[in-house]
Amino acid sequence: MNETVLTTIAFTGFTVAFFHAAIPTHWLPFVAAGRAQRWSHSKTLLITALAGTGHVLTTALLGLILTIFGVALSSRVGTWFPRIAGALLIALGLFYIWRQLSGHAHSHTHLFSKSRHGGTSDWVAIGSLFAMLTFSPCEAFLPIYVSGIRFGWGGFALLTLILSTAAVAGMLVFTSLALFGIRGIRLGWFERYESVVMGSLLLLVGVMVLLFEK
User: Fold this and answer.
1) Please, are residues 94 and 202 in contact by the beta-carbon 8 Å criterion?
2) 192, 64 in Cβ contact below 8 A?
3) Domain boundaries, the chain
4) Quick one: pLDDT band at residue 120, thresholds 50, 70, 90?
5) Which residues of 131-149 are buried (b: 16+ CB within 10 A; e: fewer)?
6) Is residue 45 predicted with pLDDT exceeding 90?
7) Burial 154-193 (b: 16+ CB within 10 A, else e)
8) Is 179 helix (H, G, I), strand (E, B) or coil?
């Protein structure tokens, strides 16, 4: 196991998951719902963590499918697998960057992010928030799972732990900042330029895999 590559993948995965949570649709609906439903800050953060867990589980399930397929493929192609994985990551990185530059960047606007929770029961509001993220997995993290396939199930477990920690922590951090009225932070730019940021990170990992994996 090449520690340099694994460390790079782990760091990139944490960065992707944490800053993906900076997208307003991952924290603003919780702030709006909390105010409309008159929830305490602690209750709002608890619901945010619950919805974040659903977000992580859906992403991890897709990552599990990719890992099962990748482990089977790795056993067949042997030493060629790192080259295939590295080339795939570079291709995905270039696609993300092209999508940004061509004006086709993926929008993270969700149906529930614009809904008004005022006048509804807590269960309806909580269910809407949970569904909003559970059925919208973190697509930016899936290539990270691809890059970790070379490290088998140990790599999958490590990346899932990183995803869980970074994504939920990021959502709690940005929700907390908004709840406590810290307005100096401006995160809308990240939603606009997420594709080029993620694409650059995937390019970095792909190059690292090609250079250091044998």
Assistant:
1) no
2) no
3) 9-76+111-193
4) low
5) ebbbebbbebbbbbbbbbb
6) yes
7) ebbebbbebbbebbbbbbbebbbbbbeeeeeeebeeebee
8) helix
pLDDT at 89 over 50: yes
Q: Which residues of 82-103 are buried (b: 16+ CB within 10 A; e: fewer)?
A: bebbbebbbebbeebbebbeee
Over residues 166-188, mean pLDDT: 79
Distances (CA, A) of 118 to 25, 29, 33: 18, 12, 7
Query: Comparing 123 with 150, which gets the higher pLDDT?
Result: 123
Q: Does residue 190 carry a pLDDT above 80?
A: no
pLDDT band at 113; cut points 50, 70, 90: very low
The answer to whether the CB of 138 falls within 8 A of the CB of 55 is: yes
- Per the CB < 8 A criterion, the answer to whether 2 and 169 are in contact is no
Tokens in use for 162? 């990183």
| Token output for 6 | 């694994």
- For residue 149, give the 3-state DSSP assignment: helix
**181 phi, psi to nearest 5 deg:** 75, 25
Q: What is the DSSP string of 29-46?
A: HHHHHHHHHT--HHHHHH
